[in-house]
Amino acid sequence: MKLGIIISTNNSETNWNAFRLANFSIKQGDEVEIFLVGEGVEYEAGTSEKFNIREQADEFLKAEKAKIMACGTCLKLREQESTEACPMSTMKDLYELVKECDKVLTF
Hints:
single chain; alpha/beta; Hypothetical Protein Ychn, Chain: A; five-stranded parallel β-sheet; 4 helices
């Protein structure tokens, strides 16, 4: 299955759980794409000892069938740079994710 996950919040617990689900899905053999939009592009700032989002994201990025994309406009509005963990993408990329994935979840 190809799973699309859209993260639009900077809530630490929510983002931690979204990445946990993404990692579990990868282990089940699924292909997973994550698109960060709005406050979601700030997900890395929410990492803590209790909700280690960075650890989950690093594990996710090691997988062959994993991909993260981030809304370029949302990054620019927050004066954030594109990184490997938060690479700049476009609405066209979000559209393709929604179009091509078997299931799409939003957090």
